[in-house]
Design a protein that fits this description.
about 150 residues, mainly alpha, 5 helices, 3 strands, about 40% helix, globular
Length: about 150
């Protein structure tokens, strides 16, 4: 299915046109600071710098551990797409679970930034700092959450 690819192309063209200046238009151009593409599957999760030889890799992850039950319920509603039931659970456990393991969380969604970013200092997130200070028991529990098992 090319629906998703075509929708993405439409969005990128709209961003491009919104950033242009038309003669006689007194409105300033609208520029988008960053675009995030939904990440590629868990099979391509990069585990180290040395794995980044070819292709695209997820470079931003969002912790979804606190809403994973809602995501499963939403996928169960997509019966016409074949996403519900056992498939939804397996997909979440494999993809979102692998992404979560990559960033030391139970579950995460991966994204790919369209543009590189420049920082004055090397960025370290509050989450990374918190994980660095976390006791082992809490660290392991955070990564070990499973859908419908832990409440």
């Amino acid at each position: 299915m090319r629906d998703h690819a075509i929708a993405g192309q439409i969005v990128l063209h709209a961003i491009q046109y919104a950033g242009r200046v038309d003669p006689g238009d007194h409105n300033p151009p609208h520029r988008v600071a960053q675009v995030f593409f939904f990440g590629i599957g868990a099979a391509t999760v990069r585990s180290s710098l040395w794995d980044a030889q070819d292709g695209y890799y997820n470079d931003v992850f969002i912790d979804i551990s606190d809403v994973i039950e809602k995501k499963l319920a939403a996928l169960d509603c997509l019966a016409s797409q074949g996403y519900g039931g056992a498939y939804a659970r397996k997909r979440i456990e494999t993809s979102d679970g692998a992404f979560g393991a990559q960033v030391r969380h139970g579950y995460a969604e991966g994204f790919i930034k369209m543009n590189g970013e420049c920082h004055y200092y090397l960025p370290v997130t509050d989450d990374a700092l918190a994980l660095a200070r976390m006791p082992d028991s809490e660290y392991i529990a955070r990564q070990s959450y499973r859908i419908g098992v832990d409440k």
